[in-house]
Amino acid sequence: MSNRSLLALILFSLLSFSALAQTNTTAGSCNKTVYLTFDTGNMSVAETVAEILKRHNVKATFFLANEKTFRGDYALGDSWKSFWQTMVQEGHHFGSHTYDHDYFVKDGPRNEVFIKPQFGPEAGKTMLMSEASFCKDIREVNQRFVELTGEPIQKIWRAPGGKTSPRLISMGNLCGYQHIAWAPAGFLGDELNSDRYPNAMLLEKASQGIKDGDITMAHLGIWSRKDPWAPAVLEALIVNLKKRGFCFATLPKTGSNQSK
């Protein structure tokens, strides 16, 4: 090989390495953080969501309740065991959504609250719950998740529908669980009417509106929406947020749980 050819080869290699290094730096850099969270819902797009998150190397946080699924079983039933085990192995985080998906109705007398479970033996009944009873329902998710996966959930919870009161939040705190709501821009709209709120509208709103530190909220399937939110919105939203310089992190916020 002539000296000229050798010089050209060396120059080409250096330029290629420089371009690769610049690409990797750009792809791996971010200066903002967003927290993707999902409530169980009817689980109809659970596997689709999992595939998208894995493809884009994004970690999310899932709030779990034993909700009835599109298959006629329940989200924390044995039939979903392998799914949750895989999600644990892939590094996602998990919180309680109350075992029976308990909707807060109002504060009760003394240190009690009125709750209406959506599932379970008391489904549809408005019940008066003490701190101990409510704590049991939050913790039951953890107990069941350990049975399914061998791993505990994080010490976080989310009230169904986002309905709370200072007393309810305090009850969760005394139980050792931090309540996690979502940012206004983080409401991703997957439970809204498809005709009035088409996927393109939801994608544009979220892509532009989400800010640094925002927590988002969607479901792993929702009964009321005809046009599924995932994959149409989710995958494009992840791409758009990455272009805006966002990293994706899990809850609770620790600063060391980011995915790019």
Tell me what the structure shows.
The chain is α/β, with parallel strands linked by helices. 36% of the residues lie in helices and 15% in strands. The protein has 7 helices and 12 strands. It has helices spanning 3-28, 46-55, 81-89, 131-149, 166-174, 199-209, 234-243, and strands at residues 32-34, 37-39, 61-64, 93-96, 102-107, 113-117, 127-129, 156-157, 178-179, 218-219, 246-249, 258-259. A hairpin with an 8-residue loop joins strand 11 (246-249) and strand 12. The model is unreliable at 1-27 (pLDDT under 50).
What is Rg? 22 Å
Query: How large a portion of the residues is in β-strands, by DSSP E?
Result: 15-25%
Please state how the strands of the largest beta sheet are arranged side by side: 4-3-2-10
Fraction of residues in H or I helices: 25-40%
Largest sheet: 4 strands, parallel
User: Would you count the extended β strands for me?
Assistant: 12
Kindly report the average pLDDT value.
89
Shape: globular
* Low-pLDDT ranges: 1-27
Distance between the termini: 43 Å
Q: What string, H for helix and E for strand, traces the elements in order? A: HEEHEHEEEEHEHEHEHEE
Layout of helices and strands:
Elements: H1 3-28, E1 32-34, E2 37-39, H2 46-55, E3 61-64, H3 81-89, E4 93-96, E5 102-107, E6 113-117, E7 127-129, H4 131-149, E8 156-157, H5 166-174, E9 178-179, H6 199-209, E10 218-219, H7 234-243, E11 246-249, E12 258-259
Parallel strand pairs: 1-11, 2-3, 2-10, 3-4, 8-9
Antiparallel strand pairs: 5-6, 6-7, 11-12
Helix pairs in contact: 6-7
